[in-house]
């Protein structure tokens, strides 16, 4: 078995989910590669030390450049806020390191394009952590599409709703709250939440061709943690957009952090001629599926049973589930990262790179930028 020495940067929410996944992936998946938690890096020295000790990294650093200079680091995992992705990724690719980068790939399309050029020039393996593709129920939805069970698609409907920024007291800047600071995040809910919805939508229903959008910033000024001053808020607090997919179907997308009671309400529904699927991340073990029975088929015996099926996605036949527990026993949020890493290492082994890679992440970035441009100009925007 080959080892892959990991240098992970950023010890917040995602640093924890990725570290947990590296520790567990070989225990559940039979792989030709084994990640080794070599070095952890965070700008905050005390966090770097305690995080490294807690998760079992061999050493820690506070300057990510030192990781790139080390010959014993094979893969750089970027778990820092969005505005730092580009510089680290390009330098890491130039140093010949494999890359896993958190979403969104960058803060805009221009940056994402530079990142794609860097990894493709260096020919290093790369993946963007759109982990929701690895929710077994979402992977099952993709399987149903591939099996032709949805048929000609008509509508795609996505929501991604949260409620944690309703209070005017929530400041901008600093750990986690950098999401409210446009300089660091790039955008608000569009890059943070809708990037996930767009990645899932394009994976299930193909490319989005055109969008028209509106955004709103409900609270115009907030205290900034770093300056201590009240500053203008420049992110989108909420965004809604309409989309036309290349396959002719119509999409609606809505995201906000002002939906009281909604915590991580990430849903989608795809309606086709032959059937529909519906998913809700707050109920992630289930995929709902409606199978249409054509009355002209002549089979009138089962009409009274027509209706939505709520599939408990825990059978060994379901995606990823033969690696986990027995039927009926669920997996959760953290397992999506383990499944993603398993796919990444399998890609190294087979030579068929795991998706979404950086080029695929660039697609999502283009859609996000088109959404924001449309919200600014009030026009429909075509996506190249
Ligand atoms: N896949 C998902 O579902 C998902 C969920 C949450 C966040 N994210 C993404 O993950 C990334 C990180 O988000 P988070 O929630 O973990 O943030 P966080 O604020 O919880 O943690 C970020 C960490 O990075 C450190 N840091 C910042 N700049 C650094 C630098 N230059 N060098 C080293 N360390 C640095 C900070 O000290 C902090 O510990 C973001 O791009 C975010 O969009 C993805």
Brief synopsis:
With 384 residues, the chain is an alpha/beta fold.
Question: Can you describe this structure?
Answer:
The protein has 384 residues and is an alpha/beta fold. It folds into 2 domains: 2-129, 3-Layer(aba) Sandwich (Rossmann fold); 133-382, Dihydrodipicolinate Reductase, domain 2. Helices cover 33% and strands 26% of the residues. It has helices at 13-28, 45-55, 64-69, 85-94, 109-122, 136-146, 182-185, 189-205, 333-350, 358-377; strands at 2-9, 33-41, 59-61, 75-78, 98-102, 126-129, 153-161, 208-216, 221-223, 230-232, 238-245, 250-256, 265-272, 275-280, 286-291, 308-312, 381-382. Strands 16-15-14-13-7-12-11-8-17 form a 9-stranded mixed sheet. A 6-stranded parallel sheet has the order 3-2-1-4-5-6, with helices on both faces. Helix 4 links the parallel strand 4 (75-78) and strand 5. Helix 4 packs parallel to helix 5 (109-122) and helix 8 (189-205) packs across helix 10 (358-377). The mean pLDDT is 97. The chain binds nicotinamide-adenine-dinucleotide. Residues 9-15, 41-44, 47, 64, 79-82, 84, 102-103, 129, 131, 175-176, 178, 192 line the site of nicotinamide-adenine-dinucleotide. The site of nicotinamide-adenine-dinucleotide has 26 residues, from helix 1.
Draw up the topology in text.
Blueprint: E1 2-9, H1 13-28, E2 33-41, H2 45-55, E3 59-61, H3 64-69, E4 75-78, H4 85-94, E5 98-102, H5 109-122, E6 126-129, H6 136-146, E7 153-161, H7 182-185, H8 189-205, E8 208-216, E9 221-223, E10 230-232, E11 238-245, E12 250-256, E13 265-272, E14 275-280, E15 286-291, E16 308-312, H9 333-350, H10 358-377, E17 381-382
Parallel strand pairs: 1-2, 1-4, 2-3, 4-5, 5-6, 7-12
Antiparallel strand pairs: 7-13, 8-11, 8-17, 9-10, 11-12, 13-14, 14-15, 15-16
The structure holds nicotinamide-adenine-dinucleotide.
The site of nicotinamide-adenine-dinucleotide has 26 residues, from helix 1.
